[in-house]
Amino acid sequence: MAADGEQTDIQVRLKDIYHELPDALRRIADTLMSDPLLGALWGIEEMAERSGVSVGTVMRFSKRLGYRGFSDFRDALREACQTRSEGAPLEALEAPTDVFWALAEVARRDEENLDRFLKSIDKETLEAATQLLTRAQHRVLLGRGVSHVMCQIMAFNLTQAGLPCIAALPSDFSNQVANLGTKDLLVVISFAPFSRETVDAAGFAKSAGIPVLAFTDRKDSPLSRSATQVVVLPSEDFLFSFGLSTFSVLSHAFAIAVAAMDPAGTVKRLKAADEVGQPLYVEHWLPMQPGAIRKSRLPKPPGS
Question: pTM for this one?
């Protein structure tokens, strides 16, 4: 069994040949790396369907990795998952039916992911990312699916800290990037399987001389080729290709660091935002009855 932090045999094989794989075989690799636990449970037909390839392509992929066939390949996947689960037999894993159990398991995984991130990230990388964010005149964040949600989280946190951001809609990526200049910043977020639109947008930005800050799940991500700075975030989740917790914590940390550079300005902006937004909120609802309106909020009658 692999020691803690040591890569399993199948991980080593994938890493050694990943950049040499043709597109069809690489799609299988990306699909598996997005969730190897589920991959270990798939049959050959399901693996082919999820990867968008034929059954024969899955067979070729198995042999390309050095296995005699699909059965040996899936056995290696199961062994890797058993190692990751600290020896718990894969067949013994059951679908969660108790919400408390699910909550505890998700919290455990999030804690492990954050611990792995803190051990893998270095101060220089975070400082370089912060400088890109603070020096830019305009900041546009791109991502699809759960990555788009991450863009919205980061845009909200940084805007509150005094760095206005736009979380672009996937349908409008081209227009958003085309309007950036060399003094602006494109922030791209994507994890395996990678978004083609996000990767292409990063490539265009690089060719146009626009700085690119990338958040992804490994150093050899397709985003790395175009990025001025890459931040790698490890994560595991049950249902999605990438969990939100680690990124949310990092996004909050960026906002706090930025706000600390100008504490007086941050307080002033928050107070101004509160004054602008105050009429939108209900004050002192209890013990008033639902729907009641405070007299002070009523408009004065004409001529009074």
Answer: 0.62
